[in-house]
Amino acid sequence: MDRKNCAAGLIPALEGMLVEFDRLDVPVAAAHLDAAIAALAKSFNLERCPSETDEPARDDLATA
Asked: How far is CA 50 from the centre of its chain?
């Protein structure tokens, strides 16, 4: 398997881990993982597809 296909296969698995991080309520770890996924996608010129469960980002400061 070439490197680009390997990276493309890793992205959905890593995005699945974001859900688990969200359940564990560890936003800093989730942010680091999200940044790593973005860097991986950028390095291999891959698109990230938002899942149907993705919600738009909210500004917690606006509600404080």
From this structure: 9
C-alpha 16, offset from chain centre:
8
pLDDT over 60 (residue 5): yes
Pull the structure tokens for residue 32: 């680091």
Helix axes 27-43, 3-23, angle to 10 degrees: 170
Contacts of 42 (CB under 8 A, 6+ apart): none
**In terms of residues, how long is the chain?**
64
Q: What are the helix (H) ranges across 1-64?
A: 3-23, 27-43, 60-63
20-64 residue pLDDT tens: 999 999 999 999 999 999 999 999 999 887 654 455 555 455 554
